[in-house]
Amino acid sequence: MQHELYRASGLPVLQNRTFASAEQAQVSGSADIVLVQDSRSGLIFNQAFDASKLCYDADYQNEQAHSAQFQQHLNDVEAILARHFKSKSLIEVGCGKGYFLETLRGLGYAITGIDPSYEGDNVEVIKAPFTRELGLAAEAIVLRHVLEHISDPVSFLAEIARANHGGQIYIEVPCFDWIVEHNAWFDVFYEHVNYFRRADLRAMFGTVLEAGHLFGGQYLYIVADLSTLRRMPVEAPSLLTLSEHFTASLDRAVQIIQAAPEQGSAIWGASSKGVIYSLFLQRAGVAVDRVVDINPAKQGRYLPLSGVRVSSPQEAMDALPKGANLFVMNSNYLEEIKRMTGGRYVYHAVDSASFQ
User: Fold this and answer.
1) Which residue stretches of 120-241 are H helix?
2) How many other CB atoms sit within 10 Å of the CB of residue 272?
3) Domain 1-232 grouped into CATH 3.40.50.150
4) What architecture is domain 248-355?
5) Which of 84, 101, 118, 301 could covalently link to 18 via disulfide, CB atoms 3.0 to 4.6 Å apart?
6) For residue range 41-86, what is the model confidence (pLDDT) as tens digits?
7) Count of alpha carbons within 13 Å of 181, Cβ hemisphere only?
8) Cα–Cα distance for residue pair 64/200, rounded to 1 Å
9) CA contacts within 13 A on the Cβ side of 309
10) d(CA 106, CA 312)
11) How confident is the model at residue 137 (pLDDT cuts 50, 70, 90)?
12) Strand 140-144 and strand 265-268: pairing?
């Protein structure tokens, strides 16, 4: 049995795909979300998800490693891997553009990567989706920010377990407990079919070596024995409901912008959160002057559906007056952004309790 938690219509199919023109962006694919929870497994997923709508290619950009704060997060991840996998052969399933894989190789890890969106020339990275037919196996699997994209996550893990003949696995995914606690409605995307709580992720395995939270609680991770994967949890899961104030931060941002439109405004962060936030602001009848991102691959390109152009930090700072409202999409980066911009703006961390 399933019960509904949240729904939203007309979201970008791929929120991290950028476009060469506003016109292309505005007519890009859209789809709906009907977020439900399964009462038997406890798992939360988009009931309206259709994987055939998604196609990852070179225009898909989700590299976050340009930020020193995110590099520190990757260091924290490596410290976990070192405790369990330091001398083991690894496969990173869904290695993206290969930044973390190259970091691990530089630290002496023996690692192979798999990802259809890979653009580099490392012969140890296979540019393809993971399948058993690839014939790859290693002592441990690294699966960072992949499982939320897979229609049937337990079957996918079972496929990896069979292909790899067991072994250990590190899984990292966004934390739905954090989304609920912070009313972070802008962290719900079509591209993410699954939303995991720590208890549900732990319940998937009989043997869990380590589990916890990372990145200010926004991510959760687990190190487990693949051979102990379970289809259903041993104990009945807890069921949840979302706050009636789940989307309150959108109304708050609209009020701030409308109260002083001449003051100027910008969204900092043109990744998933900023894409959704800027789109819903536009639909609410207001628009920020800029959407800013430090990733050069996004700058000068346009965000899906809204058609908003992405500015570099310098371009935005040259255009925005002192005292402009800056909506920071991820509070993990707030201090870094304040330093970069010299504290000249009014900063709103939209995922903080004070902004609700």
Assistant:
1) 153-164, 176-181, 198-203
2) 22
3) yes
4) 3-Layer(aba) Sandwich (3.40)
5) 301
6) 999 999 999 999 887 665 665 555 557 778 899 999 999 999 999 9
7) 9
8) 27
9) 11
10) 30
11) very high
12) unpaired
